[in-house]
Amino acid sequence: MSWSRVAVVGGGLVRFGELFESSYEQMAHGAFEAALASVDLGLDPGRIDAIVLATQRGTLWGQEGIGGNTVPSALGLAGTPCTRIENACPSGADAFRIGAMIVASGVHDVVLVIGVEKMRDKSTEEGLLSRAAGGHPVYTRGETAPVLFAPFATRHMYEHGTTPEMLAAVAVKNHHNGSLDPYAHFQSEITAEQVLSSPMVCSPLRLLDCCPQTDGAAALVLTSAEKASEMTRSPVWVAGFGMGTDHPYLHEKSSFTSLPATVSAAERAYEMAGIGPSDIDVAEVHDCFTITEILDIEDLGFFEKGKGGRAALDGDTAITGRIPVNPSGGLLAKGHPIGATGVAQLVECWWQLRGEAGPRQVAITNGYALQHNVGGRGSGVSVVNILTSRSP
Fold first, then answer.
1. First-last CA distance in the chain
2. Which domains are delineated in the chain?
3. Known catalytic residues?
4. CA distance 86 to 312
5. pLDDT > 50? residue 1
6. Which of 199, 201, 214, 369 is 20 to 30 Å from 130 at the Cα level?
7. Residue 217 half-sphere exposure, CB side, CA atoms within 13 Å?
8. What would the pLDDT profile of 86-141 be if each residue is shown by its tens digit?
């Protein structure tokens, strides 16, 4: 079976942010309409055979029966099979992986992958993220996302000489990129001085080292190679994907300078695609915190272990750098509506490979883009997807 025979023919999203005026279903509809409108040669919605929905609505809101039922109706697709995927921060990336497998299997010809999340209508104090972070009744008491990632920053600093200035460089870069992205939650540039003087959240992570809670929705249309030419003149192909897992609790970790789930997910994706890290032209990676992007670009093989912080400071990951990382603004600036995040990253990769990213456009030489998420308790799950503009 050739996975490269799965094509991405449409993609779109709504602007991320505090969307108090929009319901969950309205956001989904907006992303769906944007994805339909992007299909070059048009697509009758009736041709969509199945929907894969990424959301943490069940975990975050306790509404386990909502999502797979309400979203098809909101899109005008009532009656279409819809499967809900909840897999922590990689939910959207995993929904895409599963959607690609559905098309590749031949069971369905046209699949809609959509991610939707409402994060701002309920405060953290009301239990929004404590539901997601719940785990062992003793080991996890008092843990929040910054508490989980701060030890990685501290250890990376100790072992590799990473500095607060290097962390700040990641935030500055991604907020600059976000200022070029009309879909980003934050569209203003910041300075290193602002990052380094922002309030401390969990040492050494400061406020501007952290991504925001965000509302948003994003969608992609996948189809078979046989059907792709009916919908677009410029298909983007699925080159490979991989998933990895790791122990969920900090006391079980073997390293605080690497995320093993990312390493194994990347290895599987590269092997399936038949390429290596040096073939990637652009990457959208999971930067829930500045240290996370540094870990990511090392674990994905773009830089040697311990060199990720210096790479950010030297501009190697800028839009014009050796390996552009997070041209969309990343989670730090674009936002992190959990179920929608990975799908939106893939929309950015799709735009980049088609040369449609506007002022954020990077130089595409090899024709490969990589998308990555990591999350769950203790960063215990990761998904990597690789897209290509090269014809199969």
1. 12
2. 3-125+211-388 (3.40.47.10)
3. 89, 336
4. 32
5. no
6. 199
7. 27
8. 999 999 999 999 999 999 999 999 999 999 999 888 665 555 555 555 566 655 55
